[in-house]
Design goal:
Low-confidence stretches: 1-19
Helix content: over 70%
Shape: globular
Number of strands: 0
Number of helices: 20
Largest sheet: none
Mean pLDDT: 86
Strand content: under 5%
Structural class: mainly alpha
Length: about 350
């Protein structure tokens, strides 16, 4: 039997190398040093946040900026690229294990309606606020989505669904920094406001869960009020997280209209496939197939993966880009935050 020709051998090797799992494993191995560096910086960010009480997202960004110089080296660049993409995807997928539709439905129709209205109004109204402040359309959408849904995770997921642009990356990093600051401020101020307005525990939990951006701060604010408020805030906040998939699909289609690829062809909606994993875990958890201990572990892994991805994004950003954050971005984030809080407080009072 004749031996394979060099061309046939080459084709066979190419087919083997095209198998997605093999490519994935090869990429992870090639990026091991960058992933290790990103993970170590993420651990340091958690340590600094625990010691100081500050937001871990800010420390993650600072750590990422600190390693920006080495991130361009061949040894670290592949792993940092994986950290900014695939590790982010993992973090978002595992968020689905925190959501059980049965818990959401058990809370009643009023909190569900308020949460869905808050997301809908802020996605459109927040984008309009950003544009009115002078932000580019994509930056305005990333900022509005972070405020409307789930803070840093939403900003990064929306960025992945938008057409490629020159300033998309910097807009995302800027939004992560600002939304972390605003979430921390809200965690301190909103429980006081809930008490001053005489809200019940359920109303306070609904207000906090529907208006604070990042998940951890929303839950923390609920604990400041009461245990019942914390439970309500957790479920309401996860309602907003559950809106991530339909929001990203809609955003992807809207922003693909009129956009074009590098070759000039009309751009196709960039719907991230990792959303399928997110939805799958929501369904599995809603069926009660994920033990609570495993769900807690998956939540911790999700948080660590998201912090790792923020470190990687920071490493791909120059300090000059970040420090040139325009007053428009700050103004938009503040106005979006205040508008969301005002809308939710009004809705809670009326319903």
């Amino acid at each position: 039997m004749p031996s394979p020709t060099p061309t046939a051998t080459f084709v066979q090797k190419e087919r083997l190398s095209a198998v997605p799992p093999l490519l994935w494993m090869r990429g992870v191995w090639r990026g091991k040093w960058g992933l290790l560096l990103t993970a170590l910086v993420a651990l340091a960010a958690f340590g600094a946040a625990s010691a100081s009480g500050g937001p871990v997202m800010i420390f993650a960004l600072i750590g990422g900026l600190a390693i920006a110089r080495v991130s361009t080296q061949t040894t670290f660049r592949p792993g940092i690229t994986i950290g900014a993409k695939q590790v982010l995807h993992l973090g978002v997928i595992l968020l689905g294990a925190q959501i059980a539709l049965t818990d959401i439905l058990a809370l009643g129709w009023q909190p569900l309606l308020i949460a869905m209205l808050a997301v809908t109004v802020m996605l459109s109204g927040g984008w309009a606020i950003g544009r009115a402040c002078g932000l580019p359309s994509q930056h305005a959408m990333i900022s509005a989505g972070a405020v409307a849904i789930c803070g840093s995770a939403a900003a990064m997921a929306i960025c992945a669904a938008l057409p490629k642009s020159e300033h998309r990356h910097t807009a995302t990093v800027t939004t992560i920094m600002l939304v972390a600051i605003m979430s921390s401020a809200a965690m301190a101020v909103y429980p006081i406001a809930a008490t001053q307005f005489g809200l019940t525990d359920t109303q306070a939990g609904t207000f906090l869960g529907a208006s604070i951006h990042n998940v951890a701060q929303a839950i923390g604010a609920g604990h400041i009020v009461s245990q019942d408020a914390a439970q309500t805030a957790t479920v309401v906040k996860l309602m907003r997280v559950a809106c991530l998939v339909p929001a990203i699909v809609l955003i992807a289609f809207l922003f693909a209209r009129g956009a074009s690829d590098d070759d000039g062809a009309p751009a196709k909606p960039a719907i991230p496939l990792f959303l399928i994993g997110f939805v799958g875990l929501v369904v599995i958890n809603s069926l009660g197939l994920i033990p609570s201990s495993l769900a807690d572990t998956m939540g911790s892994v999700s948080q660590f993966a998201l912090v790792m991805s923020i470190v990687a994004l920071g490493a791909q950003t120059t300090a000059g880009d970040l420090f040139r954050t325009s007053g428009a971005a700050v103004s938009a984030m503040v106005l979006q935050t205040v508008a969301l809080a005002g809308f939710v407080l009004l809705a809670v009072s009326l319903l």
